[in-house]
Structures
1.
Amino acid sequence: KQWYQRRVRGIVDAFEGHITQDGRIYGRGTQDMKCVCIQHLEAVRRIKDSGTKLRRNLFLSLVADEEIGGKTGMKLLCLSEEFRALNIGIALDEGLAREDSAMTIFYGERHKIWSRVTFSGNPGHGSRFIENTAVEKVRLLLNKANEYRENQRKRLLADSCMTLGQVTTVF
């Protein structure tokens, strides 16, 4: 019950929306896809308003579930006859939310890898220091993953020409 009562940056309750005097929008869900969606919509509006004639049709699709692999959203759309008939030449994903007016586009192919890992070991007990437990093994794996993530972060920060599309974020 308390999680939804927290204030977003001390400005507004999470389930209330608030637009500041300088045009910033605060509230639950305003950071993720919505800002990039509005960038796409605004870009299409500006192209249309400018009278620019494009060589191809421009389509904008807004589908849910990209955080869980797109199986019930984008995948179903891509498998449809309607989508195939569009003859899509290029597709842009959600991109990256930014606080300035620029839009970051990555050209790298990124994939998620879902894994199921089973750990076995000696059963534990709160009153003893039992060695070789499954929890110890889980901790070792998580430590390695965090170490790899930190190394990737350092690579990104060390090279101003490198972008998020060139490192693996893990988690």
2.
Amino acid sequence: MIKHLSEELLVKIFSFISPLELIDQVGLVCKRWRKVSCDSKVWATLDLYHHHNIRESQVRRMVRLHPHPTRLILRYRHDLSDRTFVWCFFHLKHLRTLDLSHCRQVNPRIISAIVQFCKNLRHLNVDGCPGFDNECLLILTGCRKLRHLSFSECETITDFGVNAMASFLPKLDSVLCDGVLALHDEFIQTMIIKKCDTITDLQLDGGNLTDEGVEMISELMYLRRLRIQYCDNLTDEAILDFHHLRYLEELSLTRAHSFTARGIVAAFSRPRHFIRIVEITECSGLDDVGITAIGRTSPNLTHLNISWSRNVTDEGMVSFLDRVPHLMSLKVQSVRQLCDFVLLLPVYNPCLVHLNVISCSLIREQDLTAVSAQLPDLEIAYNTDLGCSPKSNKILRYFDFMSPRQFAKKKSKVGPHTSHVNNF
């Protein structure tokens, strides 16, 4: 049967096989399989993260035999030496995407090798690399075709390095730098001056930002994705002008303690036909007026997360659901005033596939069972003792739905009473 498969199907199948098996086993079956196993499409991605058992000598052998991958994943590969990193970059000159996140080896020497040998690089991820600092950013400005750069949790980065990056990388349109605590309003000002017409994706840590700095983001007219984590020090003044971001597709504001309905209504005061994802968590000021404003101006919304925003009631939620017929994911964890709105989900939101109602103690178990029966594809996460069928009675990792603060305290503990409907 398998000998009658087309080469296109074989390429698709072989792309799921580990690199070592492709070389040592698949290629030895027959001449046709050897030819297909050497196809550049099979080796388009070299993933050494999920295949972490591949040793350093084997990495070199694979790169020598197949030097044409366009995507290389080296995440968490602490076992590889600096010399092997540089050796890989020297041979993989067609790389367009490189993931080095959480690699302790990253340093100016390795970044210099990337700039020197990977001339076509478009996407670089160095999240959580302790050695990635301002010097590395300055060197990286030589990578002129770079479009996406993620350096979240690189704590030694400051405004100086990021300003140089924004000034000398002309094609850069995506910057992800949450967890970089040393960034201030100066960084946003530089992005507006240098990248006003090009930046489309921005992720920040709000710890050291002020209302004036965040307010300037509204001048990035083509921004499509905006994520600001830890908005503890920000107030409504920061988001009043967000309605100018007319092309926004995703808005995420976490730990938004100081925002009120006034600011949220102002941010959603104009129609937002492009927006698909809204996340406003731990916002005690979000109430029925605010959630209604989000629904009224965002008819194409597919994902909403308002976890720990405890002043939303059934009245506001029903008003919201009635306006967003395409909603697919709803997270309302710890919004404890919610109760009967779940009964209307099959009527207003037939496309819903994910529902998180953990710690919503007023929601009745029988209501969840009834909704699950009407929406067979719906996955429900909750933490009550529902007597469900063995098929759907799996334990859910409770920390997946905790706030960052709770997660830091409990880490990998599993909630003992966490239950599950429809295999979430």
